[in-house]
Amino acid sequence: MWMRDGRELYYLSADSTLMSVPVRAGSELDLGTPVPLFKAPVSNPSFGAQSYDVSADGQRFLIDVVDRDKLKPPPLMLVVNWAAGLTHQ
Predict the structure, then answer these.
(1) What is the pLDDT along the chain (89 residues), one digit of tens a residue?
(2) Measured between alpha carbons, how far is 4 from 25 in angstroms, rounded to an integer?
């Protein structure tokens, strides 16, 4: 994702770290050294997914985070002798 002024590029690394790269455009594209900003526990880190946004000044981030509690599978319920509960008419 580009900063609104086009001087910085943000991306998620493979380990979900939000990175920033300074960019200068002239006769050639000059990319600076990537800088790790922070870990971003995004909900969907796959390529092409829009899981975050950056404010126009690059100072604030809106991130769709993972709710770790919702990742737990629901408890398993085993019903035994279920046929006894059927009513015969």
Answers:
(1) 777 777 888 888 888 888 889 988 888 888 889 999 988 777 655 554 567 788 888 888 887 776 666 667 777 888 888 888 777 65
(2) 14
